[in-house]
Amino acid sequence: AAAPSSLRPVAILSAERLATADLVAAAKWGTDSPIDDPAREQQVLDSVAAQAEQIGADPDEARRIFRDQIEANKIVQRGLHRWWTVHPEQAPTTKPDLNVVRQKINRINTELVQALAVSTPQRAAPSCRPELALAVLQVHRDTHPDPLHTVALARSLTSVCES
Ligand SMILES: O=C(O)C(=O)C[C@]1(C(=O)O)C=C[C@@H](O)C=C1
């Protein structure tokens, strides 16, 4: 069997980050908090750029990749809010604490910055796209995401391969 790809943790952590979108969507559902929170996005981007720099990775690349992660998160949140608008009986009945969810997102962000740094050579290689596609298929097989999360996972990874 082939050696496990260093891109696999990147795909797994991206899927874990997307799973938090369900919690964020539930936290914001029925409140005045909009899905788009530019101040929080800036905080996330500044933080991952600083963490990347600290471990000798490219901070601008971290910003680029996490912009995609955030866009993907919003795809899931918007999709769920639309779904719950049409099917109110399926809307969540308990509201997670957004600050607690953000602490979880922060932890995943740190792990993802590290996984991206480890996979720098693989991300620069011509084999990145097929390797990443395989990693996504493996995550898909292991986690059985719904179509919304599948689409969003692809969106979250668009800048991971450097060429
Ligand atoms: O923390 C939030 O409020 C989120 O919705 C999560 C998140 C993210 O992916 O980090 C996504 C959209 C917001 O604009 C800010 C941040």
UniProtKB/TrEMBL annotation:
It catalyses: chorismate = prephenate. It is an enzyme of class 5 (isomerase). The keyword Protein transport does not apply. Pathway: Metabolic intermediate biosynthesis; prephenate biosynthesis; prephenate from chorismate: step 1/1. Its EC number is 5.4.99.5. The keyword Signal applies. Keywords: Isomerase, Signal. Residues 1-81 form the Chorismate mutase domain. GO terms for biological process: chorismate metabolic process; salicylic acid biosynthetic process. GO terms for molecular function: chorismate mutase activity. Catalyzes the Claisen rearrangement of chorismate to prephenate. This is Chorismate mutase. The lineage of its organism: Bacteria, Bacillati, Actinomycetota, Actinomycetes, Kitasatosporales.
